[in-house]
Amino acid sequence: MNMKDIIELKRYGKPLSKEQIEFFVKGVTDRSIPDYQISALLMAIVLNGMNTEEMTTLTMAMAHSGKMLDLSFAGDVTVDKHSTGGVGDKVTILLLPLLSTFGIKTVKLSGKGLGFTGGTVDKFGSIEGFRYEIPADEFPGHLEKCGMVISGASPDLAPADKILYALRDVTGTVDSIPLIASSIMSKKLAGGADVIVLDVTCGSGAFMKDFERAKELARAMIDIGNGAGKKTVAVITDMDQPLGNTCGNTLEMQEVLQTFAGRGNTDVIEVVCRIAAECIKASGKANGLAGDDLLYECATRLTNGQALSKFVELISSQGGELKNGLNPVFKDLPFEAMRVVAPESGYVYSIQTDAIGNAANHLGAGRKTVNDTIDYGAGIRFYAKRGDKVKKGDVLCSLCHGQKAELSDDVLFDVMDEVLSAYKISDEAPEEVPAVMEVLS
Ligand code: URA
């Protein structure tokens, strides 16, 4: 088989055979295909797409390029949840303990935050002692202890994706539904869970900027998952404003604790409960509950202390420090260094969410490259969200850095400008957008 012929076939919009796709992925993994040929094929895929059969074959080949986890030791249905990324996205942290109250076991493999999106393991990393590099052979012990484990993705899972993603990042080939779908689903399939629930975010703080593209990506991933014999569900959620009222690592953990205590934002609760309901139904653990009754049960367990006690078990199972056996001890706490106020009266019409994510990173909440250190106390606390009526001088949000960290006034004023230009204030009220836009299965 010859790589040049494969590139030319895709260049002319022809479907690739199973053998051709497997040849490609093998050559990517063992590095026998040069980067220029890999990149040429990636660009041809961006331009001419792939059908469902090709996407499924590509995903399976990428999944099998490394270790395939076997979670059968769990002795029950296992669930994995994935978000396509966002700003202020603390859904997983609330979801896992909630699912655990229904007896659902979760093995969550999660990436570190990069670019404007935050990473779930970094949020857990804000807790003293919390270990998030858990070797796969320790998963059974954690599942036995508390029914949950969260770990940074192992380098042995889907190594072909790591090579392809690094090349996509520098060749303008990230934004392609077949490539995004196969990248995400290869890691989910290698992770071994029986049920895959996808949170496909949509809006200015997401990969998918509009609803139709988000739906197309969701459909592609569901088709791949089902084709691989996994129950796969997707929930499309709004990311045209930050989720909840904080973004940043400790800040979001504190918001999680408030949510468990019944003082959470409605958008967060709605997203968590809808995703939980889909996981519960797909795992066969609904116990006769359905529709609004199931959602009500989820919201109740989320806020009445049941999910909180599971959360505490998870922290303790992974070595996190707890004061009085209950409250997470954070490495650093947020210090509110500057308030950003409304320059005029009106409605908050829109919030450019990727700009907010970048602003939080400039405060120290994220990293530019994987090796950068982060300031756990840094981030943004939101006081006004889309649709809120504000008067000139009202606080829109506050900029935080860690109490142990330092930030110059120059940086703070630059970030204030960035945040102000992300907020659009108008005389007109914006259209209401539900936090959960659609559920597809
Ligand atoms: N997340 C992934 O894991 N892969 C992509 O291609 C895009 C988002």
Taken together, the total number of domains comes to 3
Q: What is the residue-averaged pLDDT? A: 95
Count of helical regions: 16
CATH architecture of the largest domain: 3-Layer(aba) Sandwich
* Helical coverage, percent range: 40-55%
Ligands, deduplicated: uracil
C-alpha Rg, in Å? 22 Å
Which structural class matches the secondary elements? Answer: alpha/beta
Q: Under the CATH scheme, which class of the largest domain? A: Alpha Beta
CATH topology of the largest domain: Pyrimidine Nucleoside Phosphorylase, Chain A, domain 2
What low-confidence regions span 5 or more consecutive residues with pLDDT below 50?
none
Full CATH superfamily name of the largest domain: Nucleoside phosphorylase/phosphoribosyltransferase catalytic domain
Query: What order do the strands of the largest sheet run in, or round the barrel if closed?
Result: 3-2-1-4-5-15
Shape by Cα distribution: globular
Main sheet: strands, sense, barrel: 6 strands, mixed
Distance linking N and C termini: 37 Å
